[in-house]
Specification:
The strands form ten sheets. Strands 1-12-11-5-6-7-8 form a seven-stranded mixed sheet, with no helix packed on it. Strands 22, 24, 25, 26, 28 and 29 form a six-stranded mixed sheet that branches. A hairpin with a 6-residue loop joins strand 7 (156-160) and strand 8. By secondary structure, it is mainly β. The chain starts with a helix and ends with a strand. Helix content is 4%, strand content 50%.
Length: 706
């Protein structure tokens, strides 16, 4: 109430107070009540510092807090029935701020004043019920229940339970203040405080910031005398079961890279060798990181590689340490990961593996010290023994191969040798000169190069020369046979050409014989000097040879001391001899006259000539494939005495061809009587254009009358 109201007479004051209360009650009956809220308290690392928990709304870091309108349990109409809650936590403390309106000032604990309270519970759901409630109250009572009595600006009281009033905690774990502003109602007020999520006090609820645990809470104000005075707000007109959860704090941001493993292989190496260094690097932080990894022998860098790893990631990097030029000795191997921004734990950025020993280089040197041949002159086919001395002139055991050569050709297979440092051995090789061309050959021995060897001049040693003389060889051969033509008719000539060679080293006299199958065509005597060749020719007259296909070959007689006789015979291929063309008989008749009874008077009466036509059928043999000239001679006899010959000619061109030939006999000059006829076929036996061979004969007869 204002100062002016205090100066009115008491009756007027009572009347006005009643009128205001009635008006307030009537107004509230028609205003809606805001519903309960469900909130999640956000996490933020920025605290509200203690000095700003002073009840002034314009101080303190509240910009990142949750801001929401909450219902008050007083059930009053606007602006008294709701307030604005600002709330956040930093993982340690919860920060609260409530801005609202009130209908009286806070003057003193014994004068007009109001109070603000907030109760929180895991299980409680209604006012003044059960245990498990944790509360905070500003400006409550006059010091009777809470001591000492509050003064302006009132500070919060830490309470437990839901009594009337709630009991004050023996240990106060809350800090804050409440203030009002304004010169007339509705007055504005701000209450600010903080409290640890877990105070360790058995009278307080330990709040869990896990985003899932639910807490019920009530917030209210009172001005009508229940621990307050001078107003019309009753703190428990309605029940709004508000709920809240506290968001989980995000995991802390950690920047941390590490070397988790370093291995070197081998751990002992000869100067110039390579050591493989395997480095395991890991990101043990919460953020992706890019960093360098450097491998060292002692304080000398072997190399640097860049790695990018996600949170929790790891990788293996391989470094090659080439020890060329490195002073022999023992070196410490380590790997170092460069620090990343904001990294604190750098102790694991370096890891020492152990040591690698670099030894002085070992000399590798093998040599051929002697080469000698058992003889300097041999005949082809003889064996030469080659003795070779080999030595290890280096500082390590070596395995190598020794090979002997005549000129550039290896003598057999090389021999493998293992010799310790300073060792030597003698090897023997057998050189079989069979097949080696006559001539002079340089004999040498070669030791294969061993790893790391630089002195190669003594790996080869030349002995001298061995002369291989040619052996006496007796060998004649038929090198070629050809026949032409390869298809003939019986009686034709086939020309057989034979190529002959003396493949030995001495002059030879021998014979060459040509054959069709096993029958000799002919034999010729030949004399050839060493290496000489000649060609000879044979004529094969196929007269009297049965038709068929024959293998043509030539055989050279074996000369004294000849061992290679497989090439004394040479088979060419085949020649086909076809049968002669012959006069063919038909099924019915093959030669006949046109008239068996020739009537001259009848022929004259008809005006015809006195000619009797003679016929003969000829047929080409089915095996012949060349044109053949054919002539049929009809010999005519009267009373057994020859009187005339008439002929007919034709050329048969293909196998199996058949032709009827005609000849004409003029009977006018020979008179009547009985005539006999002998028809004989003649043909060109070698198809050279001359009819030269007689074939079959056929006989028939006829009579001439008038």
């Amino acid at each position: 109430m204002t100062i002016e109201q205090k100066n009115l007479p008491w009756k007027k004051a009572i009347f006005l107070t009643a009128l205001i209360a009635l008006a307030t009650l009537s107004f509230s009956l028609f205003l809606p009540v805001r519903a309960a809220v469900t909130i999640t308290v956000p996490y933020n690392t920025t605290p509200v510092v203690d000095g700003d928990l002073d009840g002034y709304p314009n101080t303190g870091a509240w910009g990142d807090a949750l801001s929401t309108t909450i219902p008050l349990e007083n059930g009053a109409a606007s602006p008294y029935g709701t307030a604005t809650l600002y709330i956040k936590h930093d993982g340690t403390n919860v920060y609260y701020r409530i801005d609202g309106s009130i209908d009286v000032l806070w003057e003193s604990a014994t004068g007009n004043h109001f109070w603000l309270g907030m109760e929180v519970s895991r299980t409680g759901t209604s006012h003044h019920s059960g245990s498990g409630w944790d509360g905070i109250f500003f400006g409550l009572w006059d010091g009777t229940d809470y001591s000492p009595a509050p003064t302006y600006p009132p500070t919060p009281v830490d309470t437990n339970g839901f009594g009337k009033p709630p009991a004050k905690d023996a240990t106060q774990n809350v800090l804050g203040a409440m203030r009002y502003s304004g010169s007339a109602k509705p007055y504005s007020f701000t209450a600010e405080w903080k409290k640890a999520l877990n105070t360790g006090d058995s009278n307080d609820i330990a709040l869990v910031a896990d985003g899932t645990t639910t807490y019920n809470f009530f917030v209210t104000t009172d001005t009508d005398g229940k621990g307050s005075s001078g107003g019309n707000l009753d703190h428990s007109k309605i029940t709004n079961l508000n709920t809240m959860k506290l968001a989980s704090a995000p995991p802390p941001v950690v920047h941390d890279v590490a070397i988790t493993g370093v291995t070197a292989s081998p751990t002992t190496v000869t100067q110039g060798g390579t050591v493989a260094i395997s480095v395991n690097a890991a990101n043990q932080g919460t953020q992706s990181e890019t960093f360098d990894v450097t491998a060292y022998y002692d304080s000398t860098s072997i190399g640097t590689q860049s790695a990018t790893l996600g949170a929790g990631g790891s990788t293996t990097l391989t470094f090659s340490w080439v020890t060329t030029g490195v002073t022999p000795g023992t070196y410490t191997i380590k790997a170092v990961a460069s620090s990343v921004p904001s990294e604190i734990d750098t102790a694991d950025n370096t890891l020492i593996d152990g040591t690698v020993t670099v030894n002085a280089p070992v000399i590798h040197d093998v040599a051929i010290t002697t080469v000698s041949a058992s003889t300097t002159t041999v005949t082809v086919g003889q064996t030469v023994s080659v003795t070779v001395g080999a030595a290890n002139q280096g500082g390590a055991t070596e395995t190598f191969t020794v090979t002997t050569y005549y000129d550039s050709t290896a003598v057999g297979v090389g021999q493998q040798v293992t010799l310790s440092s300073g060792g030597s051995t003698t090897l023997t090789f057998s050189w079989d000169t069979t097949g080696v061309a006559a001539g002079s050959y340089t004999v040498k021995a070669v030791a294969s190069t061993v790893p790391g060897e630089t002195d190669l001049a003594d790996n080869t040693l030349v002995d001298g020369t061995v002369t291989v003389k040619a052996a006496i060889v007796h060998d004649v051969a038929i090198t070629g046979v050809s026949a032409s033509p390869t298809t003939v008719t019986v009686g034709q000539i086939v020309s057989v050409a034979v190529d002959v060679q003396n493949q030995g080293t001495q002059s030879e006299s021998f014979t060459a014989t040509a054959y069709y199958d096993s029958s000799a065509i002919g034999t010729q005597s030949i004399t050839l000097s060493a290496g000489a060749t000649t060609s000879i020719s044979f004529s094969w007259n196929t007269t009297g040879v049965a038709a068929g296909t024959y293998t043509i070959r030539a055989v050279a007689s074996t000369v004294p001391s000849e061992t290679d006789t497989t090439d004394n015979t040479f088979i060419d291929a085949t020649v086909t001899v076809q049968p002669l063309v012959k006069f063919g008989e038909l099924a019915k008749k093959s030669a006949w006259p046109e008239h068996h009874h020739f009537d001259q008077s009848a022929e004259q009466a008809r005006g015809e000539d006195l000619i009797n036509t003679l016929y003969a059928i000829v047929k080409k043999d089915s095996l012949s494939d060349k044109p053949v000239a054919i002539q049929v001679v009809f010999a005519i006899y009267k009373d057994g005495v020859w009187v005339a010959n008439v002929t007919a000619e034709f050329t048969l061109t293909y196998a199996g061809q058949e032709k009827t030939l005609e000849a004409y006999f003029d009977t006018s000059g020979y008179g009547t009587g009985k005539y006999s006829v002998t028809a004989q076929i003649w043909y060109d036996s070698d198809c050279n254009g001359t009819i030269d061979k007689a074939g079959e004969t056929k006989k028939f007869g006829f009579a001439v009358v008038t």
